[in-house]
Amino acid sequence: MRIPCPHCGERDVQEFSYLGDAGVVRPEGSDASIAAMHDYVHLRDNPAGPHRELWYHAAGCHAWLVVTRDTRTHAILSAESARAAGLARRVAVGAGEA
Amino acid sequence: MRYSAFAIVREALRGNRHWAPVWREPEPKPAYDIIIVGGGGHGLATAYYLAKEHGYANVAVLEKGYLGSGNVGRNTTIVRSNYLLPGNLPFYEWSMKLWEGLERDINYNAMVSQRGVLNLYHSDAQRDAFARRGNAMRLHGVDAELLGRDEVRRLVPFLDFENGRFPIQGGLRQPRGGTVRHDAVAWGYARAADRRGVDLIQNCEVTGLTIEAGRIVGVETTRGAIRAKKVGVAVAGSSSRVAAMAGLRLPIESHVLQAFASEALKPLIDTVVTFGAGHFYISQSDKGGLVFGGDIDGYNSYAWRGNLPIIEDVMECAMAIWPGLGRLRVLRHWGGLMDMSMDGSPIIDRTPIHGLFLNAGWCYGGFKATPASGWCFAHLIATGEPHPHAAAYRLDRFATGAVIDEKGAGAQPNLH
Ligand SMILES: Cc1cc2nc3c(=O)[nH]c(=O)nc-3n(C[C@H](O)[C@H](O)[C@H](O)COP(=O)(O)OP(=O)(O)OC[C@H]3O[C@@H](n4cnc5c(N)ncnc54)[C@H](O)[C@@H]3O)c2cc1C
Ligand SMILES: [Zn+2]
Questions:
Q1: Mean pLDDT computed over every residue of chain B
Q2: Which of A35, B29, B33, B346 has its CA 20 to 30 A from that of B275?
Q3: Which residues of A touch B302 (CB under 8 A)?
Q4: What's the whole-model pTM score?
Q5: Does one domain contain both B262 and B325?
Q6: Looking at the domain assignment, is residue B9 inside a domain?
Q7: CATH (domain of B25)
Q8: Would you give the DSSP letter of residue B38?
Q9: From the CA of A16, which ligand is nearest?
Q10: Which of A46, A54, A61 is nearest to A17 (CA)?
Q11: Ligand 2 center to B219 CA (angstroms)
């Protein structure tokens, strides 16, 4: 398995460490309900198919990446910087917040 | 047909032409009292104990492939009950007790071999941690011995005791631990369940769970719809996929774990050894191959195969503990699908759907649990109440905080 890092190019999976599902979002604020925190900390879709997930390029640029990978074949469908993905998400949900 | 030494002689004299098939291959009936989804070790053991301990005969096990095609036929066959935490110890020790009587009970040679499990320690801190674990085991009535370096050297003299980075200081040994022929466990439970009237339906994938007014009433399968009063799900690495059919999300990620077998050798190692400074375990099968493995690959996977970095890591661990292995050839390696839970411990519980029960989250250590898992899951399905030995394996423990985290690693499945 090789991950195409947007900064470093295609590199062996050994250079990266894995965190998990990139779709989970920490509930905002200290008044989040227990149910919402439980959902965030513990529950996962765990799909068989394309999965958006967080990888850290520890032996490279030290950037967090959002990689979309098919869990049935390990084929990498895309890789982008997590910062860019996070900013895009903030823009998407931020409209109501601001 | 009952198996015995006498039967072997009798059938040999009759030219071995009269052995009966080991189990029937029935067509699915339109309805059952209880359906078990998943014909792995846990599903088959559950069906057997439902019939034997609770008197149910109208039970079916639905398996999408062939019986034993999942993890039960892919593991490294190690059984032990050397746990630390109260929620785990009584359960795994009950499993060990069931292993000890299993072959008589199911009239099948599962090659239960109590050759001992030896966990090596390589530092003072690790010795202290192992002493604590050994004490916890003994307080629960489990056998444990803390060994010094010389005692370990007598058992396994060929290890690299003077390794510069990971010198072997000693080990924690469970003499009653060992190995069990994994396929034989699947076949033995399958045959014993079949003999008590359980229908084993192969090539029958469950594709939907039929729920009416919050209650399970049956399943959709690739061989048609089947009604059932109760359904127990024991599908290991596919747990999230089947739970999703009932709209449930689980505290589970599916990961791949690889294992390896070497070419066959004369008897070389007569116990199970685990490396304490990395993740590595090794034993020898009765065919002579060394069977060994290490860590999970560490990312979500349903691919049934892993990648090269873990293979390299396992081989490095092997060489660190036992340099003589470098002369050997690996014959084959394979992968299985691990249902990694968020605290590293399993779930045997009801679900929010009436009549739907869940058995999942076995991580890479559910083979040793097979008898107790079947025993406790059958109890839960039959009586509606958790068995005392599995009472801690609740689905809601993640929300309430009563997690059972042997490693103290937190909700990060690839660290368990
Ligand atoms: C490489 C490896 C090494 C291991 N080593 C050890 C070890 O040394 N000691 C130990 O204790 N444990 C070990 N384990 C873990 C152990 O094998 C598993 O935890 C245990 O086997 C899981 O329970 P099971 O036997 O019921 O699973 P499985 O045998 O995987 O059974 C689940 C079954 O469900 C079926 N299924 C899935 N979806 C559906 C569906 N929709 N409809 C119908 N059927 C379905 C599957 O085909 C499968 O047959 C290891 C696992 C692996 C992969
Ligand atoms: Zn990079």
A1: 97
A2: B346
A3: 48, 71-72
A4: 0.97
A5: yes
A6: no
A7: 3.50.50.60
A8: -
A9: 2
A10: A54
A11: 47
